[in-house]
Write a structure and sequence with these properties.
Oligomer: homodimer
Mean pLDDT of chain A: 78
Radius of gyration of chain A: 22 Å
Helix content of chain A: over 70%
Strand content of chain A: under 5%
Low-confidence stretches of chain A: 220-257
Distance between the termini of chain A: 69 Å
Largest interface: A-B, 104 and 104 residues
Number of strands of chain A: 0
Chain lengths: ~260, ~260
DNA sequence: GCTCGTTCCATACGAACGTTTGCATGATAA
DNA sequence: TTATCATGCAAACGTTCGTATGGAACGAGC
């Protein structure tokens, strides 16, 4: 058997098991058994178990990054300025398509990414950020050119959040990778939208994320809209919440500046 | 030492270690060493390692749920109908305050929740959903009464996404729990907003989430806004992307109905 | 047809894991 | 004082983990 074939089979098995059980809960014995190779194969081909995870991730992320950049360049080559929706679509489409691959690989990869992006470990974050660095920077700049009503740092944070949602929340919430039976049993609502195919999910995500990105700058919301929420709630609950700290109301005032 | 004191010390240690290292990567020996108790204490007081996690989570979630319900009831008792922002604030405020607790417990709990909400395992999802069931249902109903421009299932999914973001993305992206040094080094942008305190973060989240919730129903966006993004990108890239499937364009048409 | 480097495999090792056991300790009630 | 019970502790159990080793199988190049 060729070396590459073995490596690919190991990556396939690891991808599935890391997604299903998590990295720590997956043993090399389980990986090699699923891959149909010997236990020692992982250490031979990848050096260690720790080195297997970045290999799995970059095999997934590379084509997504490439396509994100292709779509962005297409937009930038056009004569008209891109809209927020266009930028969001160029960013999100490759991700949604990844989670929508035929067979069960899409859901699987979705779960893997939900795990990875939710992991607050420094090593994990570093690994992901290294892989998306280029695409990320290019989109940051592009959104900065379009969201002119926002100060730069707010653009930065909104895009960071958007990217994180696209990578981690999308597969869990929007697509078919969540344990819908569990949600149905416990929350008892009809998640019909999840079943209507890729384009419905894509459109739904575009609406959600574009809405968030387009929102006016923080602090620009009218006082009439925001003030009563806090004032009312605080007043009605003051006697109940004995544990609240004294500076609470002060900080509200500061924020409502 | 009283039994409760030991249990609390174990929960404290487990909370921190689960957040920092993850559940699987944390050994009972590490927990009991940090708690200053004997190794057997966990099994004595909680039955098993598996039972320790729900105990940790519900100790955190209980006061948050209670406060969410308090704030919602205050809004519902008012004579005027609540706004989207008011509802979002009532839902998000207890969560933001949780991640903002004095000392380092806030960031810690934030990391723990990022892990838990990102975990696609069925057991984990079931555990969380059971704990938030009541509050979740009440807010679902409340948002349904306010987002009148959306069909019920879209309200349902938008709130699901909002809740997931509030629980998992908020601590990672908006607050101080992300490894900012790593982001800075790799993405090289000034995340100044994260440093300006709780109220700035809260306001930022309200803007982001309210914007997403207020967005028009999916499909209601104008064709002039959305169509060119796809058409342009597809046309310019057709020759490059040989691997694209044939039904791609068809499905776009279907979605743009 | 032999050689050499790559790949594969069976096996072993030491460490770390969750759990259990048996007994010590200390407070409480009779 | 004695009996009882909840709690704490040290030690050990069997299992599983990641990694290392030494040789077998194989194919390309001379």
């Amino acid at each position: 058997m060729s070396a590459n074939e073995t490596k690919e089979r190991i990556l396939d098995a690891a991808e599935r098991l890391f997604a299903e059980e998590g990295f720590d809960a997956t043993s090399l014995r389980a990986v090699t058994a699923a891959a149909g190779t010997n236990l020692a194969a992982v250490n031979y081909h990848f050096g260690s178990k720790a080195a297997l995870l970045p290999a799995v991730v970059s095999r997934i992320l590379e084509p997504v990054n490439a396509r994100q950049l292709e779509l962005l360049e297409a937009l930038e080559a056009a004569e008209t300025t891109a809209s927020v929706e266009q930028l969001v679509e160029a960013f999100v489409l490759p991700i949604v398509d990844l989670f929508d691959e035929e067979g069960d690989r899409g859901p699987m990869v979705g779960r893997l990414f939900a795990r990875i992006m939710g992991d607050p470990g420094a090593d994990m974050q570093r690994m992901v950020l290294e892989q998306v660095q280029e695409s990320d920077g290019r989109y940051q700049a592009a959104f900065g050119r379009v969201l002119l009503h926002l100060p730069p740092e707010e653009v930065w944070w909104r895009f960071r959040t958007t990217a994180a949602i696209a990578g981690s929340m999308a597969p869990v919430v929007v697509s078919r990778h969540v344990h819908v039976e569990t949600m149905l049993a416990l929350l008892g609502a009809p998640p019909a939208m999840a079943g209507t195919g890729r384009d419905a999910r894509l459109g739904w995500m575009l609406t959600f994320l574009s809405g968030a990105l387009r929102a006016p700058a923080t602090g620009a919301a009218s006082r009439a809209e925001r003030q009563p929420a806090r004032a009312l709630a605080e007043a009605e609950l003051d006697e109940q919440r004995l544990d609240r700290r004294a500076d609470d109301r002060v900080s509200v005032e500061a924020f409502e500046r």
